């Protein structure tokens, strides 16, 4: 009526494959670090928001209120701290102070930080020739697909090269007798043969050629005309935003070209 089945992996090939998948999953195979978020109480007060000094060596700074791009500090632009004007990622491990400590920041410091952040935001919009209306519109489309972007990026991280080459496949049930498995044959082992075939690439193996993708979008007048009926234009904008944000920083694997077509 019921019961449990426990499957044990005993073959060398199966164990090696599972180990490779585990290493890829935790980020050790291709140099990706494992990030640990640490919450701690600093016990220090904030003063006034500022950008902070730029470290020419880009050394990691934890705590304090001097350097821009630090983590777990105060007053300066960084990550995981409190009282800073805006977030600034310098590429280091993030140390996060507690939410209670961030909530305890005085209201005047929060107000000054918001004003400084808004000023920096407007300056950035001016640099990229983008209006505040354009920024709010983009944020509306981007926010609607943020979860989908993260899901798609996880899929892209786990993609592997598809190139194959013919070589000896060992641990087979049929084929030519493998000289290295003669002793195993005496003990009754079944997978003692080898044969020529195409071997799938290892998980996480580098991709040899960049894949070229074309994103074709309908920009005809009917998209605007019937947007009030089924939101087709808004959904197209969200889809384009999802694809372009998800494929960012994957230029070594994919080259995405958006194209507008009056279909």
TrEMBL record:
User: In this entry, which stretches build a coiled coil?
Assistant: none
Q: Specify where the region named Disordered lies, as residue ranges.
A: 44-85
Comp. bias regions, Gly residues:
66-84
Q: Which domain of life is it from?
A: Eukaryota
InterPro entries from the entry?
VWA8
Residue intervals passing through the bilayer: none
Alphabetical GO CC annotations of the entry are: cytoplasm
Protein's recorded name:
von Willebrand factor A domain-containing protein 8-like
- Higher taxonomy: Eukaryota, Metazoa, Chordata, Craniata, Vertebrata
């Amino acid at each position: 009526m019921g019961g449990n089945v426990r499957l044990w992996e005993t073959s060398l090939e199966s164990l090696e494959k599972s180990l490779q998948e585990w290493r890829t999953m935790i980020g050790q195979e291709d140099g990706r670090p494992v990030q640990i978020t640490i919450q701690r109480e600093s016990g220090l007060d904030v003063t006034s928001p500022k950008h902070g000094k730029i470290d020419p060596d880009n050394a990691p700074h934890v705590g304090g209120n001097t350097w821009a791009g630090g983590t777990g500090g105060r007053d300066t632009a960084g990550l995981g701290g409190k009282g800073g004007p805006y977030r600034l990622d310098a590429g280091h491990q993030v140390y996060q102070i507690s939410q209670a400590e961030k909530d305890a920041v005085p209201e005047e410091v929060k107000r000054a930080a918001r004003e400084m952040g808004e000023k920096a935001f407007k300056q950035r919009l001016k640099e990229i020739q983008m209006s505040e209306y354009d920024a709010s519109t983009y944020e509306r489309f981007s926010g609607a697909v943020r979860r989908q972007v993260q899901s798609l990026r996880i899929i892209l991280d786990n993609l592997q090269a598809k190139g194959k080459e013919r070589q000896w496949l060992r641990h087979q049930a049929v084929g030519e007798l493998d000289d290295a498995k003669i002793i195993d044959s005496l003990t009754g082992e079944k997978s003692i043969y080898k044969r020529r075939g195409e071997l799938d690439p290892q998980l996480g193996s580098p991709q040899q050629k960049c894949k070229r993708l074309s994103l074709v979008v309908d920009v005809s007048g009917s998209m605007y005309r019937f947007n009030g009926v089924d939101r087709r234009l808004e959904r197209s904008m969200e889809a384009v935003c999802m694809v372009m944000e998800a494929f960012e920083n994957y230029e070594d694997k994919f080259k995405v070209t958006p194209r507008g077509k009056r279909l």
